[in-house]
DNA sequence: ATCACATGCGACAACGTTGTCATACGGGGC
DNA sequence: GCCCCGTATGACAACGTTGTCGCATGTGAT
C-alpha cells in the first residue's frame, strides 16, 4: 500500500480510501491510484484491515460438521454456503468424526481466527465450554443436536416422531419381529431414534426385542456385518429399521448379499441420493436437509447482524417417504 | 493481552512468550500468566500474530470445488482436510458451480484473506489471471482439470483412457448402437471423455452416431429426460455411456422408468456411493478420489513448505469396475 | 473584499501482536 | 573483589491498515 501511494503520488490514507470505495476522492486521483494498484499487483490485506477496524468482522464463519464427505453434512454445508455467498462470507469447514476432543480443538482454532459465527453439529455431549463465548456475544447455532449446558440457537429434527412413524409403518405392514440397527447411543440423535422407535412400538402394544437391537454401528461395513449376523439367527427378523443413512446402506448391502431384498422389509432414517432407484426403492424417514440448512443460515446471520433475542429452537418434523422396501409384508 | 500482562504483573512481551510456548520464561511467571489468561478468558489473535510475524502464514488454505455437496468434490475436500488437520491448517471451502465469474471473485476473496495455498477445480477455461500470483510464489494446485495459460501443479484423471475403456467394453459386449450422454463440452474433462469415447469406438472400427450424442447435460433430471427422449426414437440405442456421475444417475432413473434396466447396457464415468447395490449393479469407470485427494494435498503442502521445483502433473488412470449393467448384451 | 463552509487530501495514532535489542541479576572463575 | 557470561525480562518499533482530525483550497453569499 505504501508503494502504491508512492507510485500514485498520494498519501497512504488516500489509497485506503480508494480501495474501500470511500467517497470524497476526486476522479483524477482515484484513477491514478487504481492504475498504481494494477501496476504493482497490490492486494488489500483483509486481516490488517479487520485488525484496525473496530468492528472485528472477518466475514468468515466456521462450520463444524460430522463429516464433510457425508451427504447430510455436505448438503448442509452447501445450503450455508449459498446464504454466505450472498454476503461475501467465507466458510471454514471441518469434520469432527464424532470425536469430542476434535470439536474442542477446532472450536479453539476457529475462535483464534476470529470467525464471525459458528455452526456446530456437536460431537461432545455437553457444550458448557462455550458458555463464556455465547455470553460474550459469539453467534452460535447448533444443528442436528440440541446444545447441552449452553443456551444457543438450534435447528434439529424431531427424531422421536420420525422413528415412531417408522415403527407404526412397519407394524402396520404386519411385522412383529423387527430389528433395530443404530449408531452410538452416546449420540443424542441416535438415542432419540431408538427411544422413539420403542415408544412407537409400545403404542401398538409391542416391545422391541433386545436381541434384535444392535447399536454402536459406525460404518456401512459394520452395519452390513451386524445385519448379516442377525439374519443368520434361528428366528430372524422380518423387518429392519436402520436409524442412519450409512447404516441403511449397510443394511441394503446385507439384504442384497443374502438375497432377501424383496423378503425382509427395510426402513431407513435420513434420505440419500439414489435411495429411490434401489430395488426395491428404499422407504425412508426424510429430514429436509435443504430446509435445515436454510434455517441454520437464517439464524446464524441474524445473530451476526446483531439479533440478541432469546435462543430459538427450531424443530423440523421428518416425513415418511414410501418407496417399496418398507411395504414388504412378513413371509 | 495488555490486560493479561497487567493482571499477571508482567510485560506484554512476556505474555507473548508464554502463549507461544517460547523458552526462557521462568515457571513461576509462566504460571502467573496462564492464570491470568484463564481468568480473563484471553484468546490469542491469529490475525494480528500473522500480521506481525514476517512469514505470513495464516495456516489456512482455500479449496474451490465444483460443488461441495457433490460426492466427488466432498470426498476430495475430506482428503485434503485429513492432510491439513495434521498441520493445524484450516480450509476455506467454496463451490464454483461451473461459473467462471464465481471462480474469479472467490480466488480474489481468498487471496485477500492471505491463504497459504489454493486448490482449484477450475470453472474457467483459462487461468492466465493467476500467472502473477504463481510467479509471486502462491502455492497452487489444480485438480480434475489441467491449468491453461498458467504453469502450476495438477492432479487429473486420464479421461481419454477411461472413456476408451468404456467404449471397448461396450463394443466387446456386442453393442453397435451406443448413446453418449455428457456434460457441457466447454468443460475440459467432458470434452475429453467424448473424444476418448469416440477414439475407443474408432479403434474397433466404429463411429459414434451423432444422433445418439447428447451433451450440455447439467443435472440428473436433464440426463433422465434426455435419455428417455433418445430411447423413444425409432431405433433406440442398445447401450449407453453416461460421462459423469450425476448424468449416470439420471440414466439409471430413465432406464428404471422405462423398464429397460436389464435390457439396455449402461456404463458410467465416476463411481459413487451405492452404485454397487443398484439392480443391476452399475458398471463404472472409477477415478480413485481418495488417491487424487492425497496427491493434491501432498503437492499443495510441499509447495507451502517451499518446494520450488517445476510443476508436477500427476495423471491418474481410472479403471473399469464391472458390476452388471455394462455387461448386458444387445437384444 | 470578507466570511462561512464544503471538498479533497494528508499526518498521525492505533488495532493486537512479536522481533530486536537492551538491561538487570546471579553465579562462577580468577 | 573483579570480570564475564548466561538467564529472565522489558521497552520499543513495526506488521498493513483505517479512524480522527486538521489543513489547504475553492465556492458562493454577503
Brief summary of the model shown:
The structure is a homodimer of 331-residue chains. Helix content of chain A is 42%, strand content 15%.
Biggest chain-to-chain interface with counts? A-B, 47 and 47 residues
Taking strands numbered 1, 2, ... along the chain, how are they ordered across the largest sheet of chain A?
Answer: 2-1-3-4-5-11
The proportion of strand residues of chain A reads: 15-25%
Q: What would CATH call the class of the largest domain in chain A?
A: Alpha Beta
Quaternary organisation of the protein chains: homodimer
Q: In the residues of chain A, how many domains can be counted?
A: 3
CATH architecture of the largest domain in chain A: 3-Layer(aba) Sandwich
- What is the number of E strands of chain A? 12
CATH superfamily grouping of the largest domain in chain A: Response regulator
Structural class of chain A: alpha/beta
CATH fold name of the largest domain in chain A, please? Rossmann fold
Helix content range of the residues of chain A, please?
40-55%
- Gross morphology of chain A is elongated
Distinct helical segment count of chain A: 12
- Low-confidence parts of chain A: none
Amino acid at each position: 500500500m505504501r508503494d502504491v501511494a508512492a507510485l500514485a503520488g498520494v498519501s497512504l490514507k488516500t489509497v485506503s480510501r480508494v480501495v474501500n470505495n470511500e467517497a470524497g476522492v476526486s476522479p483524477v486521483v482515484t484513477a491514478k491510484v487504481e492504475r498504481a494498484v494494477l501496476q504493482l499487483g497490490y492486494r488489500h490485506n483483509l486481516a490488517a484491515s479487520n485488525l484496525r477496524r473496530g468492528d472485528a468482522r472477518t466475514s468468515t464463519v466456521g462450520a463444524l460438521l460430522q463429516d464433510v464427505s457425508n451427504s447430510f453434512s455436505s448438503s448442509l454445508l452447501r445450503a450455508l454456503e449459498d446464504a454466505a455467498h450472498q454476503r461475501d462470507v467465507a466458510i471454514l469447514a471441518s469434520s469432527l468424526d464424532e470425536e469430542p476432543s476434535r470439536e474442542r480443538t477446532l472450536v479453539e482454532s476457529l475462535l483464534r481466527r476470529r470467525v464471525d459465527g459458528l455452526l456446530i453439529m456437536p460431537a461432545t455431549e455437553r457444550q458448557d465450554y462455550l458458555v463464556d463465548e455465547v455470553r460474550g456475544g459469539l453467534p452460535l447455532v447448533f444443528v442436528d443436536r440440541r446444545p447441552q449446558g449452553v443456551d444457543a440457537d438450534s435447528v434439529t429434527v424431531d427424531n422421536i416422531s420420525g422413528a415412531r412413524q417408522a415403527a407404526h409403518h412397519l407394524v402396520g405392514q404386519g411385522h412383529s419381529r423387527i430389528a433395530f440397527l443404530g449408531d452410538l447411543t452416546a449420540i443424542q440423535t441416535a438415542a432419540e431414534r431408538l427411544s422413539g422407535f420403542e415408544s412407537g412400538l409400545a403404542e401398538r402394544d409391542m416391545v422391541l426385542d433386545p436381541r434384535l437391537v444392535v447399536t454402536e454401528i459406525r460404518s456401512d461395513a459394520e452395519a452390513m456385518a451386524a445385519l448379516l449376523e442377525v439374519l443368520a439367527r434361528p428366528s430372524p427378523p422380518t423387518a429392519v429399521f436402520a436409524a442412519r443413512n450409512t447404516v441403511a446402506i449397510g443394511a441394503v448391502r446385507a439384504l442384497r448379499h443374502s438375497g432377501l431384498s424383496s423378503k425382509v422389509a427395510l426402513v431407513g432414517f435420513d434420505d440419500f441420493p439414489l435411495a429411490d432407484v434401489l430395488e426395491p426403492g428404499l422407504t425412508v424417514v426424510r429430514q429436509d436437509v435443504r430446509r435445515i440448512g436454510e434455517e441454520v443460515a437464517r439464524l446464524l446471520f441474524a445473530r451476526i447482524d446483531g439479533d440478541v433475542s432469546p435462543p430459538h429452537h427450531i424443530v423440523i418434523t421428518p416425513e415418511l417417504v414410501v418407496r417399496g422396501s418398507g411395504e414388504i409384508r412378513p413371509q
